[in-house]
Design goal:
This protein has 105 residues and is of the alpha/beta class. The chain has one domain: STAS domain (Transcription Regulator spoIIAA). Helix content is 46%, strand content 27%. It has four helices and four strands. The radius of gyration is 14 Å and the shape is globular. The termini are far apart.
Length: 105
Amino acid sequence: MAGRSLRNSMLRIPIDEGEDAVVLRLERQLISPWVEDVEQCWCKAFETLGSRSVQVDLSAVNFVDASGGALLIRMHEASFRLAGNSPATGRLLDQVQDGRLWEEN
């Protein structure tokens, strides 16, 4: 049963390389075990970036833990364009931009 829950939380990272941008599409859960994988994709994208921008599509992310949130803040600080199309993703992006993930209100 434990293997099944880990498999369901596995992060997928399709990469779309366009003329103007490299898009990392994160899918499912952005949690501690997968942060290093995202960072490796980030480094790989920079190797072939040229003058293109890097965009991170969070539309299909359904959960972010503290490690994933810290990664999003680092990506934001590195001038990645973070985007998503759901209200929950919008709130997450607002918090990332303000640098206030998981703060008490």
